[in-house]
């Protein structure tokens, strides 16, 4: 017992935080395997069409509520908390949910993490041919999104990874001090390192072998899906009164065709 307690107390704050993150899979979760076509067919024989529609409506509501907080939806959570006895007809329910999101709400359900099966909603009201639709952060519509846009701009212009201290110094120049409560943003450090991270706009990663401990920021999976790097370059060009092509490496990345081998910002190390 003493040894177990000592091990628990030896966890770093970041470790204990990750364990308490509701997006992380609990140790007690049963692994979910995508049911086969025959399993789906047998499962559908157990339920009426109206029952499947009702369960699809529950899944849809769950996704929409999560999206209000910009929290990615994890497939394992859907199965455990909503689908339950309907897990063997998951593909059919998922198909109905995707269709409703598309045709009724104008949303696309985008998988941003194929390993952990995390999904976010993308607005499809202004679709493009191949790439995701124009990002909501292309022109920040709220103070929080404006602050996030600034942070993502700094990370992008620094080729994908920046030390935490650089972000705080940049915000201080904008009179947003992470050590003080802000009239618009409240606890700035918590907003940036917790809320934006939980929403998958940012990654906040400990730098190994540093004493005292240091952290760095990278783009998160949601930012890769939603934020236009071309818009960031336009913003920087206007700010510095230069053409976006001035930053040649960033320009190539921002205008790389979909599916090109150019690494995403969150993948750069």
Write up this protein.
This protein has 269 residues and is of the alpha+beta class. It has twelve helices and eight strands. The strands form three sheets. The chain has a three-stranded antiparallel sheet. Strands 4-8-7 form a three-stranded antiparallel sheet. Helix 4 (49-68) crosses helix 6 and helix 7 (143-157) crosses helix 11 (229-240). The longest helix has 20 residues, at 49-68. It starts with a helix and ends in a 15-residue tail after the last helix.
Write the layout of secondary structure elements.
Blueprint: H1 2-9, H2 13-20, H3 37-44, H4 49-68, E1 73-74, H5 75-83, H6 90-105, E2 107-113, E3 118-123, H7 143-157, E4 161-163, H8 164-173, E5 181-182, E6 186-187, H9 188-198, E7 202-207, E8 214-219, H10 221-226, H11 229-240, H12 248-254
Antiparallel strand pairs: 1-3, 2-3, 4-8, 5-6, 7-8
């Amino acid at each position: 017992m003493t040894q177990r307690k000592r091990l628990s107390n030896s966890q770093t704050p970041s470790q204990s935080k990750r364990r308490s993150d509701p997006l992380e899979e609990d140790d007690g979760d049963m692994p979910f395997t995508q049911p086969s076509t025959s399993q789906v067919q047998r499962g559908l024989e157990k339920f009426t069409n109206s029952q499947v529609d009702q369960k699809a409506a529950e899944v849809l509501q769950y996704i929409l509520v999560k999206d209000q907080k910009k929290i990615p939806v994890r497939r394992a959570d859907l199965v455990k908390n909503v689908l339950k006895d309907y897990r063997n007809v998951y593909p059919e329910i998922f198909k109905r949910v995707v269709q409703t999101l598309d045709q009724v709400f104008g949303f696309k359900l985008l998988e941003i993490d194929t390993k952990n099966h995390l999904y976010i909603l993308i607005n499809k009201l202004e679709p493009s041919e191949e790439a995701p639709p124009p990002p909501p952060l292309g022109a920040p519509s709220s103070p929080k999104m404006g602050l996030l846009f600034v942070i993502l701009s700094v990370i992008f212009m620094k080729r994908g990874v920046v030390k935490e201290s650089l972000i705080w110094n940049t915000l201080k120049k904008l009179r947003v001090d992470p050590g003080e409560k802000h009239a618009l943003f409240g606890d700035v450090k918590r907003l940036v390192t917790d809320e934006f991270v939980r929403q998958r706009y940012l990654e906040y990663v400990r730098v190994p072998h540093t004493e005292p401990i240091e952290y760095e920021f990278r783009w998160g999976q949601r930012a890769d899906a939603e934020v236009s790097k071309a818009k960031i370059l336009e913003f920087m060009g206007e700010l510095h009164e230069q053409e976006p092509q001035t930053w040649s490496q960033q320009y190539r990345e921002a205008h790389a065709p979909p599916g090109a081998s150019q690494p995403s910002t969150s993948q750069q190390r």
